[in-house]
Amino acid sequence: MKPVVGQKFQSLDFAFAFYDVYARAVGFDTRKQVMRKVDDVTTWYQVVCNREGRKKGGEDDQLNARSGFTIKRRKLSKRCGCTASISFRENIGPTLTFKVLKEILGGFELAGCTVGDIRNASRDIKEYAQGFDVQMVLDDMAKKKEMSEAFTYHYEVNESDQLVALFWCDGVMKRNYHMFGDIVSFDSTYNTNRYCMIFTPFTGKDNHGSPVTFAAGLVFSEKTGAFAWLFRHFVHCMGVAPRMIVTDQDLGMRSAIEEVLVGTRHRWCMWHIMHKLAVKVPNRLLRDDHFKKEFNACVWSDLLEPDEFEEEWNRLVIHHQLDDVEWFKTLYTYRKYWIPAYFRDFPMGSMIRTTSISESENSFYKTFLKPRANIAEFYLNFNHAIEF
């Protein structure tokens, strides 16, 4: 994890993520400090400890608007002069590429091309990949399958020969699943590429509470059929279905789970539900700390029995006049999907109290994935993320 001088990274974002993980492991946070650009291309970036430097002076003069006198107000600063830092340097872009060629070959006349030639070549490569990017990915997966029987992939195309679904899993993911796959979190909220296909990772937690990826997929729609296709290949790949799957409240997803994962318990992610609370409750309750305390005690407790929860929920709804709020009615109707009282027979540990494993994992992937990338770029960046 410790960076060394001369270490190379696939991208600047990858380098930032690497150093951020290292910094947190040894006990400090980071902030980006200095950046240099040449021809609108980032060539140098410095990242420092967030406590780098020292506060200038101990006090700030502030003018008292009423009296007209200057008063002294002391401001606390966390900066302590920490010298931890790292610098990243790039050589990217047509202009810099041409300059590098010139240095390597010994002169502009020996480069055999111009900056315009390099820019055009880069454009042509992207255009070529745009037409064959899916086939490039499938060819790479086929080679991986030849090299390792543990690698699994499946895909589906429509009548126009366009990719509509893709599933893949390697040996490490499969091994992680058989060690930590009792509970699987499945999420479909992240659009990842220019074809607007939806990235659907299967995620879990290892013994340290860290997210691990069990498999991944791309689907063109969020309908029941697309999710059912993914779940079937996931179970066939792993040989056994998870004991529990955690998702958001998507109805298509729920139908697919009922159709394919017959023996798997289905639980809704508490984070997605609680995230909507601020826009679903009446305005008069948004600043009511007593209501928030009561509501949290009701829905988060794993000590309540089902009948105790129902009694407490009904009392809370009546007391705060929530009988006519449709969202609360719906939540109560589907209470067996998300209230801890109905999962007392299942050893979930920290899963009940955490927000969403998938939210953490998606936040990590966003460091590497680009929303407008083609399938080949997406797949390459996904592999970089997994290696990291």
Structural overview:
This protein is an alpha+beta fold and 388 residues long. It has 4 domains: 12-92; 94-132, no CATH class; 148-269, Nucleotidyltransferase, domain 5, CATH 3.30.420; 270-355. 43% of the residues lie in helices and 19% in strands. The chain is built from 14 helices and 14 strands. It has helices at 12-26, 94-105, 115-147, 171-180, 224-238, 251-260, 270-275, 277-280, 283-286, 289-300, 306-319, 326-333, 357-365, 375-387; strands at residues 30-38, 41-49, 59-63, 70-74, 85-89, 152-157, 163-169, 183-186, 190-191, 198-199, 202-205, 211-219, 244-247, 265-268. Strands 6, 7, 8, 9, 10, 11, 12, 13 and 14 form a 9-stranded mixed sheet that branches. Strands 1-2-5 form a 3-stranded antiparallel sheet, with helices on one face. A two-stranded antiparallel ribbon has the order 3-4. The radius of gyration is 27 Å and the shape is globular. It starts with 11 loop residues before the first helix and ends with a helix.
In short:
It is built from 14 helices and 14 strands.
Which descriptors apply to this entry?
388 residues; alpha+beta; Nucleotidyltransferase, domain 5; nine-stranded mixed sheet; three-stranded antiparallel sheet
Cα-atom radius of gyration: 27 Å
Query: CATH topology of the largest domain, anyone?
Result: Nucleotidyltransferase, domain 5
Number of structurally distinct domains: 4
Mean pLDDT: 81
Q: What CATH architecture of the largest domain would you give?
A: 2-Layer Sandwich
Helix content: 40-55%
The profile of the biggest β sheet is: 9 strands, mixed
Compressed to H and E, one letter per element, the order equals HEEEEEHHEEHEEEEEHEHEHHHHHHHH
Mass-distribution shape: globular
Uncertain residue segments: 58-72
Distance between the termini: 10 Å
Text of the CATH class of the largest domain? Alpha Beta
> How many E-type strands?
14
